[in-house]
Specification:
The structure is a homodimer.
Chain A (H helix, E strand, L loop, with lengths): L4 H11 L6 E3 L6 E3 L5 E11 L10 H19 L2 E11 L4 H18 L2 E9 L3 E11 L14 E5 L4 H10 L6 H8 L5 H7 L5 E4 L4 H12 L2 E5 L14 H10 L6 E5 L4 H10 L4 E8 L3 E5 L5 E2 L11
C-alpha cells in the first residue's frame, strides 16, 4: 500500500521522542528550539548513500542507526552534548516495512544519545540519507583539531580497523566475523568520551576516513607532526586473529571507524585514564605529537611504515 | 580533471562568506556558532532531487539557488532571521565547472539573505542536494501554522502559479515565457516579508506544495476553515494571459511556489500593507478564516470550485 508523504511524516513524528528544549517539533515549516545560555551551537552534516556508505543488502535498522551515528561522532569529536537533528530521507519507493525498520534503528540510537529528531524531509529518489546534527558546548570549550601541542600524547578510542576488515571480508566473498560486521553496521559514537575530554584534550578528530589520514588533519590544523606506534594500536579480539601485516592497514588507514583520535598533555595521562573509565570507553596511548609536519607510522622496529593507502576520499 | 573531496571542500570554503557569529566555520568536525541570547533557534531541512524537484537540464546556478531558496522560504514562514546553513551534496561524478556554477548560485542567494554556509558533506551518488537552514527568532515570537483565528484576513505574497505554469509549458513541449521560467528556477524566498509579519500575522505557511493544500495545514493546525476568492488571486503579467479556467489550477494548487500565505486580524490590514511595502513585497488579500474545517475555493459567482488537484505529495 503506498504511503503518502504526510502519512510518512506522521509515522516518524509518532515515534520520535522529544526534549524539554524543543519548543515546537516536527509539523510546522520549521522547528523551534531553545539553546542553552552560555553555550555555542555545534553543527555537523553527513550523508550516507547506498552502494557508497553501506552495502545494498544492509538491514534498514542498521542504515538508520549508522546515519545518525556518523553525525553523533562529529559532535563527540568536538566534545559537544548532542541536542537536536534533522533527517533528509530520499527513498526510491514507499515501503512502510523498510521505513519502520530504518526509523527504529535511527530512533534507538537517538534515544540512547539523548538527541531529538526535530524536522526533515522525505522525497522520492535513489536511497540517500542526510542528517544534520546540532549539539551544544560551553562557549570557548569545544575541542578543535587545531589545538595539538608538541609533546602531547596521542590516544585513540575503541579498536579501529574492525569495520574495514568486515568490508574486506565481504568484498572477498567471505562471511565476516559477526562482531566485526556489527562494528561496520552499528558503530558506537563516542559521545560520552568526547564530553569527558573537554578541558583535558588539546585536539580531537573522529577517524571516519581512517586513523592516519584524519590524524593528518590535526597535524595540518595545529602545525605539528605526529608519530604513531603501530604495535600499540589496539586490536579487537576478532581482529587480533589477523597477522599485523594484514591488519595494520585496516587499523591505520581503514575508513568507517567512528572512533576518536585525540591529543592531550602527558601530564593529563592519569586524568585521561580516569575520564575514559568514567565514560566506559576504551582508550589507548598510540603515539605522540612531534615537531614538523605530517604523520609517521612506525613499525615494531621503530622504522617508518607505509601502508600505501591514503585516507579515504570520495572522488579521488 | 578529477577533484578530490578535500579539494572540493576547499573550493567551497574559499568562496563562502562568513558572519560575526560563526566562531568556527567549515573545516573541523563541526562548526561552532554563537546563538543570540533571548532567541529561539529555527531549523528546517529540505532536499532537492534531480528529476523530481528540478529538470535534468537545469543550469547548475539555478539548482544551487533553488536548493537554498526552498529552505529560506521555510524560515520566512516562521518569521525567522536567516543565520546559518549546512549543505549535503551528492554528485554522480566530479565536475568542477558544474560545481562552480552550483556554488555560485547557492552563495549568491546566501549572501543576499545574510546566511552563512558553515558545513556539510560532499559524496558520490545520484545528484541530490539537502540543505538544513538555521534561523533565529525572539523567544515566543515565531509565527506558527496554529495561530489562525476566525475572522482573520487571508493574504498571499507574490504571484502564485508562475512556476507551475512554466513546468506545464515544458511538459507540453512549449518554450515557457522567460519570466515564468525564472520564477520556477529562481524563486524569491520572502524573508523580508516574514520578518515584517512578526507581531502582525496570526499564522503563516510557505506554499511550496500549492496554496490550497498548504493553507489546509493552517486550517488543520488552527482548528478553523478558510475561504479563498479565486478572482482575487494575483496573477503575474505573464500568467494573466491565460484564461482563469486555465490558470486557476496553477495559482490555487500548483506546487513549487515559495510564496507565503498568512492570516492576520482585519484590524491589522493597514499595518500589513505598510509592512509589506517596507519589505518591498507584493501581498494580496485573497480570503478569510472562517469557522469549520478545510479550505473552500470560491469562483467569481461565489460558488465552490474544485480544481481536481490535491496538494502535491511525494509517494502519493
Amino acid at each position: 500500500m503506498p504511503v503518502g508523504e504526510f502519512d510518512l511524516i506522521d509515522r516518524i513524528r509518532a515515534r520520535a521522542r522529544t526534549r524539554g528544549d524543543v519548543v515546537l517539533g516536527i509539523g510546522d515549516d520549521a522547528a523551534l528550539l531553545q539553546p542553552q545560555p552560555g553555550c555555542e551551537l555545534v553543527v555537523t552534516a553527513d550523508t550516507l548513500n547506498v552502494g557508497v556508505h553501506f552495502l545494498e543488502d544492509t538491514a534498514p535498522e542498521d542504515i538508520g542507526w549508522k546515519s545518525l551515528a556518523v553525525n553523533l561522532s562529529d559532535l563527540a569529536a568536538m566534545g559537544a552534548s548532542p541536542s537536536w537533528c534533522t533527517l533528509a530521507l530520499a527513498l526510491p519507493q514507499s515501503d512502510p516495512a523498510w521505513l519502520d525498520g530504518f526509523i527504529g534503528g535511527f530512533l534507538e540510537l537517538a534515544q540512547s544519545a539523548g538527541i531529538a529528531l526535530v524536522g526533515g524531509d522525505t522525497t522520492r529518489g535513489p536511497l540517500s540519507i542526510s542528517v544534520t546534527a546540532m549539539g551544544q558546548a560551553p562557549a570557548g570549550r569545544a575541542i578543535r583539531r587545531s589545538g595539538a601541542q608538541v609533546g602531547d600524547d596521542l590516544w585513540v578510542t575503541g579498536t579501529p580497523g574492525d569495520a574495514c576488515s568486515a568490508l574486506h571480508a565481504i568484498w572477498a566473498g567471505v562471511v565476516p566475523d559477526p562482531a566485526l560486521r556489527r562494528r561496520m553496521n552499528r558503530p558506537t559514537p563516542r559521545n560520552a568520551a568526547g564530553l569527558a575530554l573537554v578541558g583535558l584534550a588539546n585536539s580531537c578528530v573522529d577517524i571516519s576516513d581512517g586513523l592516519l589520514g584524519d590524524l593528518g588533519h590535526i597535524c595540518k590544523a595545529s602545525g605539528v607532526g605526529a608519530e604513531v606506534m603501530l604495535e600499540q594500536l589496539p586490536a579487537s579480539r576478532a581482529l587480533s586473529r589477523f597477522a599485523p601485516a594484514v591488519r595494520w592497514p585496516w587499523q591505520a588507514s581503514g575508513g568507517d571507524d567512528y572512533e576518536l583520535c585525540f591529543s592531550a598533555p602527558a601530564a593529563q595521562r592519569e586524568a585521561i585514564v580516569q575520564a575514559m573509565a568514567g565514560a566506559q570507553t576504551q582508550a589507548t596511548l598510540i603515539g605522540r605529537i612531534v615537531q614538523g609536519q605530517g604523520v609517521i607510522a612506525l613499525d615494531g622496529d621503530g622504522q617508518p611504515w607505509n601502508s600505501g593507502r591514503p585516507s579515504f576520499q570520495h572522488f579521488s
